[in-house]
Predict the 3D structure of the following.
Amino acid sequence: MPALRKSDLVALLIPPGPLWPALIEEAWSVGAAVLPVDHRLRAPEREALFAEARPTAVFDGSEVARVEGGVPVEPGVGLVVPTSGTAGRPRLAEIGRDAIEAAVRASAERLGASSEPWLCCLPLSHMCWLLVVARGIILGCPVAIHPRFDPDGVATERGAAFVSLVPTMLARLLDAGCDLARFRAILVGGA
């Protein structure tokens, strides 16, 4: 990803897919932070997010565009993520690289998982799934990224030892009769 600078806040405006880990890793390598943008947002929602976050750059899948009036992040910030807004209007949470690494290493230690593959099957604009990608970057484990949650896609994914889900997703998988015993562990949170 060319043209990124230290303390940039780069908005990633692309669908979930295999580019995400490399883009995040590249941003972090120059000291930039990432604003994950749900590619399904309508223009007014995206514009409101950009007005609040004020990214310095946007990557749309083909090029990095500098943004006039963007505000750099403080050193050490790795992610800027909109909250869910359950207690009111969503807010932006700045998450430091050290906090991301601590969360990844703590969960890996607890699960006994350091380099085993993960499955990521929901939008990367949510912290839960960003941490799955961060595991791949920090621990060097493979991460299979699905473009969206689909019980059949999860059921046919081979090789992933771990997956992170919200309760509704787990219920849908169980209702569909998916064999989940092949996962060493399923992290369930959120909702």
User: Anything to note?
Assistant: The longest helix spans residues 97-111. The beta strands are 9-12, 33-36, 57-59, 64-66, 77-82, 92-96, 118-120, 143-145, 162-165, 185-188.
